Amino acid sequence: MKKIAALGLAGMLAAASTTAIAAKPEDAINYRQGTFSAMAWHFGTMGAMVKGKVDYDAEDFSRRAEIVSQLSKLPMEGFMPGTYSGETDALPAIEDEWDKFEGGMNALVERSAKLAEVAKTGDMDQIKPAFGEVGKTCKGCHDNFKD
Ligand code: HEC
């Protein structure tokens, strides 16, 4: 029984990663750019708080960290075949180095979840490094995969 359940789960995971998405390339590009823009909207204000450019408001910071954490799961789906030309800054290297790109996306999901967790403490000594880790993940991927 256990073995069958495990096989079933493996099958589901495989299916999820190869889900065919019914969308035109330009819709996928708009979708991923939109999710990144929304992420940057919140991350920017969080950065201003970390740097002391605007007053730190623990509750507001925590709310934004939670939003970034949820949004970080979204863009991946928009990186589908046939979407690396036209109105996009996404480089074709994404397809050639898919594992590395996927690793960057997974790191973003994990690190922003950590940041959302740490944000609840309201302790800037913990928040600052966790914020820095997420920022490095954004930049690392952009350096490699964004024009
Ligand atoms: C694993 C790779 C990866 C990570 C991590 C990543 N990005 Fe991006 N980002 C991209 C790519 C690729 C594009 C270009 C998308 C396009 O133009 O189709 C992009 C585009 C953007 C854009 C421009 C959107 C637009 O309207 O054109 C913003 C803003 C952005 N990212 C912010 C962020 C922020 C903030 C983070 C971290 C919290 C982040 N990104 C993390 C790969 C990444």
TrEMBL record:
Pfam families: Cytochrom_C_2. This is Cytochrome c. Residues 1-22 form the signal peptide. The keyword Transcription does not apply. PROSITE patterns: CYTCII (PS51009). Keywords: Signal. It comes from the Bacteria.
